[in-house]
Each structure stands twice: as structure tokens, then as C-alpha cells.
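Input sequence (130 aa), recorded before submission:
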Amino acid sequence: MAKVRLVDETTSGERRDAWALEWAEERLTLREVIRRRVFEEVAVLNEARVEGGHGLVRPTETERLLNGPDQREARRMLPQKCYERALADFGRNGFLVLVGDRQIWDLDEEVDLTAGAEITFLKLVPLVGG
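Predicted structure, C-alpha cell format:
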């Protein structure tokens, strides 16, 4: 059983633990790591009926408008759509993924999850006026 620590970080230096998950596999593709993380995050957000905002899962503007300010009646987020958005964000360089100190460039590259692996999701923020 591989215990994996997922960390969210921004280019401004903000860093926070996102998840500590246990997976049976010791190697997964980056695509599968993102899928599992997104599905877990959506499940937690749907259960708590809160809006995402810090992790990979964020409601679209349309979802925010439909749900309105009263989140008790919020519509459930769909994990597959959130996963597809996360993959698109990765493809547009919306975030980088680091395993230890090594950047993973390819969604199909296998990630080593042995002995307390730490995976950092580094959100890139576009420069203003640039």
C-alpha cells in the first residue's frame, strides 16, 4: 500500500497539503493520479456541499451562477467533467506536477509512489498585462 501526500502550491509561494491518500499501486500514470485526486476532491466537495476553490476542482462560472449563494441546495459536481477540465488545464500549462523535485511532463508517464511520495500540484498564474 502506497501512502501519497498531495500538495497544492502557487507561484507566489503559498503551499498547503491537499490530501494524504493510500493507493494499492506503487506506480501510476500521471493521468491516473490526476483522475483519482479529482474524483476524491469532487466526492468530498459534493458531500460537504461546498464550492471548490483551492484544489484542482473549481466550479465553472455557469455552475456558480446556477448554484447561487445558497450552497445547501448546490448541484452536485460531476467528477468526469471536473477530471476533463483538469486534464485540459494541465495541457494549457495551468498547473505543473512535481514528484519530489522532478517535473512530470507527460500524462502517460508513470509516477513512483513508493515510501511516502509527495506530489506537488503547482498552479501557474498568468502575469497581468503580459
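Checked by second reader. Residues 2-123 form one domain.
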